[in-house]
Specification:
This protein is an all-alpha fold. It is 81% helix and 0% strand. 25% of the residues are buried. α1 (3-29) runs antiparallel to α3 (43-63), α1 (3-29) runs parallel beside α4 (67-92) and α3 runs antiparallel to α4. It has four helices and no strands. It has one domain.
Length: 99
C-alpha cells in the first residue's frame, strides 16, 4: 500500500478515538432516567456499548487489532452520537413529554 494511503488511514484511525471517548463520556454524564424517558436502552447498556466502542477504537490504533473491531466501535459510537444523544438532550430540555 502506498505510504500516503497508510498515513491517511492512520489519521482516520486516530481521529476516531476522540469520537469514541466523547460518546462514552457523554453516556456517563447523563441521568439514568433520561434514557427511559427518551425510550432508549438503559444507561448501563449505553455506557457499556460506548465504553466498548472507545476501547475497540483505541486498541485498533495502539495494538493494531483488525479493522473489523474499528468499524464496529465506530458504528456503535456514531449510533449513540447521532441517535441517542440528541434524544437525551431533547428530553432533558423538556421536549420529550416530561419526566
Amino acid at each position: 500500500m502506498p505510504v500516503l494511503a497508510v498515513l491517511i488511514l492512520q489519521l482516520i484511525y486516530w481521529a476516531s478515538v476522540p469520537v469514541g471517548a466523547f460518546a462514552f463520556i457523554h453516556a456517563l454524564l447523563q441521568r439514568a432516567e433520561a434514557y427511559s424517558a427518551a425510550d432508549r436502552m438503559t444507561k448501563p447498556a449505553w455506557v457499556g456499548i460506548t465504553g466498548g466502542a472507545a476501547a475497540a477504537l483505541l486498541l485498533v490504533v495502539v495494538a493494531g487489532f483488525a479493522w473489523l473491531f474499528w468499524m464496529a466501535g465506530l458504528v456503535a459510537a456514531l449510533v449513540y452520537i447521532v441517535d441517542v444523544r440528541p434524544r437525551l438532550i431533547e428530553v432533558q430540555r423538556g421536549g420529550g413529554g416530561g419526566w
